[in-house]
């Protein structure tokens, strides 16, 4: 039987805890997850209390670019403003405007870049596994 450490080695992913502010006011516990097995993506997990957690997966590059200038279209848009970075999420069931501390997001991005430096993502991606998943062939 494999241990949890064997399934999810600590050096393969990072997690950053922070607080988002819904509409800039109401605090929402949040986590930014990054797994080197999916090196181009970050996952934003929002604790919505009794409604449970909500996850949004989007490009790490989008987040990095959004630290410098307004970016994105569609479901995820990011807009920096002084010491705050706004993440605007839209879905068929509604939308949320979340304010994050710029410093917290910068620290989280640094952790992802320490694990997988920008531009080196293809070295960490399991192309064979993805091909097998896409084609239905056994890995």
UniProtKB/TrEMBL annotation:
Q: Which UniProt keywords apply?
A: Cell cycle, Cell division, Septation, Sporulation
Q: Which InterPro entries has this protein been placed in?
A: SsgB, SsgB_sf
Where does this protein reside within or beyond the cell?
Cell septum
Is Cell division among the key words of this record? yes
Chief location bin: other
What is the superkingdom listed in this entry's lineage?
A: Bacteria
Q: Which GO terms describe its cellular component?
A: cell septum
> Which protein family is named in the record?
Belongs to the SsgA family.
Name the record gives this protein: Sporulation and cell division protein SsgA
